[in-house]
């Protein structure tokens, strides 16, 4: 797969199919990007499991923090990686040991590792690199336009409303 660009339909398909997310590198610090992405995903109805060995057993936004992917209490649909690119191969090793395998490995902005991505894809896992699910969800739902950001998505379709305060769902093309 070409990981330089992603079709909006591909990202929408992923975001619409994912319900549970393991966030590797989640931080309890409310000024860290992982904190507000975790908060955003929770507000959109995703079930998010923070992974951070330094905070295992504690809570972030009411969610128990786990030390590793192996410690998760249930299978997840997506693993969201908030770690340096150099940490990705080890995380993908952990992902490939999960049973069942997640549907998606998502690497945050600035995170990319082509060899690890190829290993995950060879196992049938979709991979997204150098993207943020919060930004992509906001772009595809139209919410990002509320702040004046040009999402690049024009539609005359009525937004698909989800539960929650001003919560749009991602609409497929």
TrEMBL record:
Domain spans labelled CoA-binding: 14-111
InterPro entries from the UniProt entry: CoA-bd, NAD(P)-bd_dom_sf
Pfam families per record: CoA_binding_2
Domain of life: Bacteria
SMART domains, per database record: CoA_binding (SM00881)
Name of the protein in its database record: CoA-binding protein
């Amino acid at each position: 797969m070409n990981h330089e660009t992603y079709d909006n339909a591909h990202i929408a398909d992923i975001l619409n199919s994912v319900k549970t997310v393991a966030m590797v590198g989640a931080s309890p610090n409310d000024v860290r990007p992982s904190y507000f992405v975790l908060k955003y995903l929770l507000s959109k109805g995703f079930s998010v499991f923070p992974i951070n060995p330094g905070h295992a057993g504690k809570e972030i936004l009411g969610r128990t923090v786990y030390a590793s992917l192996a410690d998760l209490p249930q299978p997840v649909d997506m693993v969201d990686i908030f770690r340096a690119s150099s940490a990705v191969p080890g995380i993908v090793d952990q992902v490939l040991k999960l049973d069942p395998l997640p549907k998606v490995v998502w690497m945050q902005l600035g995170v990319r590792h082509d060899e690890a991505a190829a290993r995950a894809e060879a196992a049938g896992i979709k991979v997204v690199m150098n993207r943020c699910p919060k930004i992509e969800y906001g772009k595809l739902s139209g919410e990002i336009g509320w702040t004046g950001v040009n999402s690049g998505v024009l539609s005359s379709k009525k937004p698909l409303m989800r539960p929650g305060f001003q919560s749009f769902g991602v609409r497929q093309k």
